[in-house]
Amino acid sequence: MLMGVNGLSPLTLPLVRQLIEEGLADFCEVMADNFIHLPPEKIRSALPDVPLALHIVASRFLEKSFAELKQLAAYLRPWIHALKPIYVSDHLVRFTEHGSYLPFIAELDYDREGEHIKKRVREWKNLLDVSLLFENHASVTPRGKQQAVFFERLLQETHSDLLFDFSNAYIAEYNQIAPVTQWQPLMRHARHFHVAGFKIEPVSKLAIDTHDAPVEKIVLDRMSAYFQAVPSQAIRTLVVETDANVQLDHWRQELRRIRKVLGISKGAA
Fold first, then answer.
1. To which H or E segment does residue 165 belong?
2. Cβ–Cβ under 8 Å, residues 72 and 33
3. 184, 226 in Cβ contact below 8 A?
4. Which domains does the chain have, with CATH numbers?
5. 3-state SS assignment for residue 260
């Protein structure tokens, strides 16, 4: 298995390089949103000979006009062709409502928006000219009850793949939206994974995907049990995400801890 870390911005690349040099990380998942102003050669100069993945957070491909999508794809295609990422991934969420930005990203109405989502996924894949992975959402509303069922239909009908986030699935379970077991049919075919820390909001008591805390032990234990039970695929990746607590010592500690739980030695692929 390849262990990766998320490159949030050009400012974090020295930390990423340090973790790779120490053998704690094997690749970098680049957040395209914060690098798109740079030519791909700049990324390669900062991380020479390092395998890369490409993660798109706020493409808003479900909300943009087709003309806007074509323009965005024109920026991203040269990146994809030059960097040859392990995978390219995106999110199925809503950032705006009636033209105005929402205070928090919102889960989709899978029943009402289902056909539009499928149509847009096909268009986005064609414009980027690449296979796409879509990450499961950390549900906090009842809409999440339909998420796994919709993902199964979506992936089959659009020939896309799942980027399975262990923490997001557990958050939905903790929030009493949907059990992690709903994802089992799709997890068996997944090859690329995320894990991150989360926090409990003090007023609502909901688990919120914050990426700024250590990964919960129950998430690590479930992840370990899954990898032990499911035969290894040709290639398998796991990105340990840190967003709001980007400190070298924290990242080191988490990578060492997760490698120990999963039984992966430093630098092992």
1. strand 161-165
2. no
3. no
4. 2-262 (3.20.20.150)
5. helix
Three-state DSSP state, 141: coil
| Letter string b/e over residues 218-248, b meaning 16 or more CB atoms within 10 A of that residue's CB | ebbebbeebbeeeeeeeeebbbbbbbeebee
Dump pLDDT digits (tens) for 232-259.
766 799 999 988 767 899 999 999 999 9
Question: What is the predicted pLDDT for the residue at 267?
Answer: 59
pLDDT tens digits along 149-197: 999 999 999 999 999 999 999 999 999 999 999 999 999 889 999 999 9
In angstroms, the CA 106 to CA 31 distance is 20
Structure tokens at 225: 């049990």
Burial environment of residue 114 by CB neighbours within 10 A (0 to 12, 13 to 18, 19 or more): middle
pLDDT value at position 269?
46
Decide the pairing of beta strands 88-91 and 94-97: unpaired
Give backbone dihedrals phi and psi of 226, rounded to 5 degrees, phi first. Answer: -65, -50
User: What is the DSSP code (8-state) at residue 215?
Assistant: P
- Cβ neighbours, 10 Å, residue 76: 19
- Give me the residues paired with residue 165 across strands: 194
The span from the first CA to the last CA of the chain, in angstroms, equals 5
